[in-house]
Amino acid sequence: MIVIIIIGMSLVTMIPRIIPAFVVEKLQFKPWVNRWLGAIPYAALGALIFPGILWVVPNEPIIGIIGGLVAIILASLGLNVVFAVIGAITTVFLLTM
Amino acid sequence: MEKNAASGGEQSQSFHMIQRGIITGFPIMLGYLPVAITYGVLAKQAGMTLLEIGLMSLMVYAGAAQFMAVNMIAVGTGVVEIVIATFVLNFRHFVMSLSFMNQLRGIALKWRLPLGLGLTDESFAVSAMNPDEGKKENGVLFYAMIFLIAYLSWVAGSILGGILGEVIPDNLSQSMGIALYAMFIGLLVPSVKKNLKVGLIAILSMLINALCIQIGFSAGWAIVFGTVIGGMSGIILLKEDER
């Protein structure tokens, strides 16, 4: 039964991921569409960060916010992403001790 | 002689791209391992076998959907409901793939296909923040390494979690939960520093996402709408930046 679930999940995940690989070749986008698609990564990052970050620790949104602020500060200093990640993990760990 | 020199140059160029890909992809590994281990632990507790745990990561390869499926399996939800919920939750990857494939124009289909299959929030975000590599010679190797590291970390972590069972203390795994968010922030901040309008696009998308959730949309659709509508602001905001 679980194998059937896995196959079904795999298909509905795979198909939307690969259709653009075939489609893009055949289409020539207008400049405004290209700008839209060019903005998608930043929009996606925004939507992936918030409000999800509030729920890192259940019922304690402030901890997620503080962890996020630490990541913002470390990244603003020009440090590699790895340090933002480690800094945020450490912050949340200390706050939940 | 000349031919040798040329192929030597190409080799070191390939090597350079592979190396850069590994370095750039490393934060994904850092973020994926703890999350994948947690998935493995929970899936084990839900009664899945090690083979099923590994197979799901190999074939579905979508973190949030796998967590959701494990929960649904644990409470005995039917196949159709799980599959539909997965489709909704993962449909955002269609939007991301469209953007990424547009960035990869000029790269052969035989490369774009596996890159499409391996597209996750994280591999997409990291790759999209490094658009220049796609135009360089052998740049596809750079992306391939990012995607490979992410995939292997996810699969290996899942199986590890399934084997280990409950070993990670609660507050440690909670702390690890911020890793991917911190990575997204770490990716976004340098772009915002270069161009403040990019930050505006992200904030708009955050607000639309939050609003959609507030009015009762599922997380999957909320992210899709946040991304698509938030991204629309780029049509106007990014106008002057085009060269």
Automatic annotation (TrEMBL), chain A:
Record keywords: Membrane, Transmembrane, Transmembrane helix
TM annotation in the entry: 6-24, 36-56, 62-95
Highest taxon above the source species: Bacteria
Pfam family, any one: AzlD
Protein name: Branched-chain amino acid transporter
Species for this entry: Oceanobacillus chungangensis
UniProtKB/TrEMBL annotation, chain B:
Protein location: Cell membrane
Taxonomic source organism: Oceanobacillus chungangensis
Membrane as UniProt keyword: yes
Source taxonomy: Bacteria, Bacillati, Bacillota, Bacilli, Bacillales
Protein's GO biological process: L-valine transmembrane transport
Sequence similarity: Belongs to the AzlC family.
Residues annotated as transmembrane: 22-42, 73-95, 140-165, 171-189, 196-216, 222-238
Transmembrane recorded as keyword: yes
GO cellular component: plasma membrane
Source taxon at top rank: Bacteria
Keywords: Cell membrane, Membrane, Transmembrane, Transmembrane helix, Transport
InterPro entries the UniProt entry points to: Brnchd-chn_aa_trnsp_permease (IPR011606)
Pfam family, one: AzlC
Coarse class of the protein's main subcellular location: membrane
Membrane topology of this protein: Multi-pass membrane protein
Protein name according to UniProt: Branched-chain amino acid transporter AzlC
